[in-house]
Amino acid sequence: MLPDPVLLQFLAIAWGGIVSAVAVRSDVRWRRIPNRSVVPACVAVPLLLALSARANAPGDPPGFPEALAMALGAGAGLAGVHLALALLGGLGGGDVKLALLLGTLLGHSGGAMAAAWGGALAWLGAGLAALTSRCVRRARARAPCSAVPAAPPPSTVSEGLPFAPFLVAGSWAVIVVTLTAEHAR
């Protein structure tokens, strides 16, 4: 007998949330997303979601293969887009693995459209942050010398914008909205 499907779904979502928080903290501080947290979650979360779908309807539920395929397909789709962008430069492998995890959760909560919205919100947020950062740098460069703050000390962290905070924020905004709408029905 399988455990309660709601408990399994809760465990999958909670695990994804914890890994998301770890990824954001790590990406902001060191521009690295740790494999030791993301990779196990990329395996365990789909398994928990599959067990949840299976336990929800004993026997051979007609929607089980489709629901599992939707979650895995959305995860693979979002990861595939990020992999293509990583190969072009600018994204790291950790962002791709995080996209796989979050895409699977997005696919489970709302299908392929949820994954598309999560990715779109992430890129919109990152684009706005990059534009704002560029405008602030240009404004500081044009300011009088006395108003320009001293240069920050040299850092070992790359100067790029960390992407994990935007991927997590966009994805979890969609996950919360879709799960809330689903339970409101």
TrEMBL record:
It is an enzyme of class 3 (hydrolase). Gene3D superfamilies: 1.20.120.1220. Residues 19-117 form the Prepilin type IV endopeptidase peptidase domain. Its EC number is 3.4.23.43. The chain crosses the membrane at residues 6-25, 37-55, 67-88, 100-124, 163-181. InterPro entries: Prepilin_IV_endopep_pep. Pfam families: Peptidase_A24 (PF01478). Keywords: Hydrolase, Membrane, Transmembrane, Transmembrane helix. GO terms for molecular function: aspartic-type endopeptidase activity. The keyword Transmembrane applies. This is Prepilin peptidase. The lineage of its organism: Bacteria, Bacillati, Actinomycetota, Actinomycetes, Micrococcales.
